[in-house]
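Anyone have tokens for Thioredoxin reductase? Sequence:
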Amino acid sequence: MNEIRDVIIIGSGPAGYTAAIYLGRAGLRPLVIAGALTPGGQLVNTTEVENFPGFPDGVLGPDLMESMQRQAERFDAELVYDDVESVELDETVKTVRCSGGDVYRARAIVVATGSYYRHLDVPGEEEYAGRGVSYCATCDGFFFRGKPIVVVGGGDSAMEEAGFLSRFGSSVTLLHRRDQFRASRIMVDRTLANPAIDVMMNTVVTGINGDGRAVTSVGVRDVSTGEQRELDANGVFIAAGQIPQTAFLGGALALDDHGYIIVDGASTRTNVPGVFAAGDCADPVYQQAISAAGTGCRAAIDVQMYLESLAEEAGD
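Reply: yep, here.
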């Protein structure tokens, strides 16, 4: 509690580790509060990553995160495996309280807690995650070339994913639980005009079925008639939205209507001086590992400039 650090990074995905690498190389010895259960973010639950530059043959998500972690530690980043419970950000020296009882203080904070995919919570979803169930079309669509695909959702992201997947699948069926889409009109029109996409309204998923190795079908129910049936599917893409992990902030930072941290333009500066946000927790649009890593770099540079300004104000 008595030690005042230069910078604390909350989160350990591509954004957090990249910020740690840059800040470590700057000699700032960042503290990374990596999380108690899932350090490394969503990529630790991802199998093959083929679109991260520098890996022409692809890389397993956990391996990529382990490499980033080792690189951060090489430059003297200190990792703590705990969850942040609350923060106090109003003063020049910020306070971070963890679930395990430890309290840390720093002049600058980088929030890189990411987001998590909204799940359907139906039988088979967890069992076949990474084996047919996916939450990212741009990550996994290629693996389902020539195979039947189901997309679940009714917003713009679901429409975008269905359109993208129509390049690969032998068929694409879009399921939506209501009788009207939440997506913008232009996205709905584009989807309905795509001959490769079948649309089923008033339809919910009841279960995801497989042979123990991969997905083979999806159980669905018509909410109007109660009729149940199975759809052939090898790929199930769930596009029900994402939830940014910002609840622990307790209103300490400005958030948008969906809970994402608001940053100043192309920077990572938040509305609180000395607090910066990087990765998916501040990015409702792109949600990719490479874009998260890029903002982690930006956050590190923004932190360095902020700390330099503090030193100048103090006359150092």
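The domain at 133-238 is CATH 3.50.50.60 (FAD/NAD(P)-binding domain).
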